[in-house]
Design a protein that fits this description.
This protein is of the alpha+beta class. The protein has 14 helices and 7 strands.
């Protein structure tokens, strides 16, 4: 039986406060994950905080890359703009990047529960607007030269910065537009065509197309971020549900252990409390039945005493079966292994059941292979297995039927014995029922056959304690066959006999025929 702690016994079936708190936490976790899934992208606070966290991480990781782009842009722009102006612009660009990085770093240190979503989203958008204005300044500086190469540089820089910003700030779509709008407005203002034949027309269209493409890209990246967070929420929900299921399983296991402990206590107590009065009932009823102190004046009293004695024996047998099954299920049944001759033991059981079979006009046939070595087993347990199986076979076989017993080798080197009857059989769907504790098939209920429904579970448990296998085969109207197999490691290899006429040191091996069960 699973180990039971003293704390568990002390609190009985009461609820542990720690367990209750853990169940509430898991329930809240599952509820939160489900709300995130059903509210994704619709303003749900926890989901919006995660989007801001994605933005902050992306902005922190891109600071160095954008700083390098700004330095390269300044170096190239020296071809059209004085260095002093570009140094001022670079200082502003690096300062705006530092402010954005500091904001992102500060946000990353906050607890999600303390985040003001609207305020921090506004802060990030304002920081992006400032960066967009700074990049618009270098566009204005280069565009004033009216050099075609400078305008080409402006477009290339616009495309590069737009794509980087769209990738970095995609988790806040408004921030994408806020960062691109100032720079795009300046470019369009400088390149706005005065007529359809103006050479600035293609450049203006390209600038507007760049903004549109960046907006579309940002939208797709935002949708992908939503999908990623949805998948993460689904995973969180699955993990939370698994943890909740595990908690429920642990609670059920603890309750089962407590119930098993209560059952063991009940059986230990009731076995003594029931057997003590039963001994008196059996003893006195037997004295009354045998009329040891004189004949009964009323004959019915003798019949009553006989019924009392029979009922007491039946109750005692039922108590013994319940105790046996309880010990087997709890793993407390101790096998007292010793060398056992399986064929002889089965034959003894057949002899004991022969009178009962004869009264019911049932033929008992026994077949056993010769020279079977002994097996290492508990003789009492094996005898109980054989008697239970023979008793069931005789009980459910109609008068004139046949019960066949076989003992022999298995193909793997073990030993088996089987009991086959010509009774009505068991429907396939009822086999799990008759194999369960207190389970009785429809035939037993219909015929009101006596029995507790514990015989087969006890047999199966005792066989498995020996490391063997128990198999039940049955077909309706054909009969039932039960096969018990003991593994090869239970078989004791008999020492070979010494031939006194052979030279010393040479042994003559025995021969044993083996057949598959």
């Amino acid at each position: 039986m699973t180990e039971v702690t003293a704390e568990m016994i002390e609190r009985g079936r009461g609820v542990d406060p720690k367990i209750a708190a853990e169940r509430r936490r898991l329930s809240a976790k599952v509820r939160e994950a489900r709300e995130k899934l059903t509210s994704a992208g619709s303003g749900y606070r926890t989901f919006d905080v995660e989007l801001l966290q994605l933005f902050a991480r992306a902005r922190q990781s891109s600071t160095i890359s954008l700083a390098i782009v700004a330095i390269v842009a300044m170096a190239i722009a020296t071809a059209w703009v004085p260095l002093q102006q570009l140094l001022v612009w670079l200082s502003l660009a690096l300062a705006s990047l530092s402010v954005s990085h500091a904001l992102a770093a500060k946000f990353s240190t906050l607890e999600p529960a303390s985040v003001n979503v609207a305020r921090w989203r506004s802060n990030f958008i304002v920081a992006e607007v400032i960066q967009g204005i700074v990049w618009a300044q270098i566009v204005a500086l280069v565009a004033e030269t009216q050099d075609p190469s400078g305008r080409t540089f402006i477009l290339v820089m616009l495309l590069l910065v737009a794509q980087m910003n769209a990738t970095i700030t995609a988790s806040i779509p408004v921030a994408v537009y806020a960062g691109l709008a100032p720079m795009t407005a300046v470019i369009v203002g400088f390149l706005w065509p005065t007529s359809f034949t103006d050479m600035n027309m293609p450049l203006a269209v390209l600038a507007c197309g760049t903004l549109l493409y960046s907006a579309v890209l940002a939208k797709k990246l935002y949708a992908r971020s939503l999908d990623t967070l949805s998948f993460q929420s689904e995973k969180d929900e699955l993990i939370a549900e698994l943890e909740q299921a595990k908690a429920n399983s642990d609670l059920a296991r603890r309750r089962a252990e407590e119930a098993n402990l209560a059952k063991s206590r009940f059986l230990a107590t009731m076995s003594h409390e029931l057997r003590t009065p039963l001994n008196a009932i059996l003893g006195f009823s037997e004295v009354m039945k045998a009329e040891l102190f004189g004949a009964h004046k009323v004959q019915s009293y003798k019949e009553y005493s006989h019924d009392i004695h029979a009922s007491g024996q039946h109750l005692l047998a039922l108590i013994n079966e319940i105790l046996d099954l309880s010990r087997v299920e709890a793993g407390r049944y101790e096998l007292k292994a010793e060398p056992v001759a399986l064929n002889h033991l089965v034959e003894d059981c057949r002899h004991l059941m022969a009178l009962r079979a004869k009264k019911r006009d049932i033929t008992l046939n026994a077949f056993s292979e010769s020279e079977l070595p002994r097996i290492w087993a508990d003789e009492r347990a094996v005898r109980q297995v054989a008697l239970n199986l023979l008793s069931n076979a005789i009980k459910f076989t109609s008068p004139g039927g046949i019960v066949t017993i076989k003992v022999g080798w298995t193909s793997s080197g073990g030993q088996y014995f089987s009991v086959k009857d010509t009774g009505p059989g068991i429907p396939e769907e009822e086999i799990p029922i008759v194999m369960s504790s207190f389970g009785r098939g429809s035939l037993a209920q219909k015929n009101a056959e006596e029995g507790s429904g514990l015989g087969l579970p006890i047999v199966k448990g005792l066989v498995e304690l020996h490391g063997g296998t128990f198999t039940l085969k049955s077909k309706v109207s054909e009969g039932t066959e039960v096969i018990v197999i003991f593994p090869p490691e239970r078989v004791m290899n008999a020492l070979p006999r010494l031939d006194p006429e052979e030279p010393p040191g040479e042994l003559k091996p025995q021969k044993a025929a083996r057949s598959a069960a």
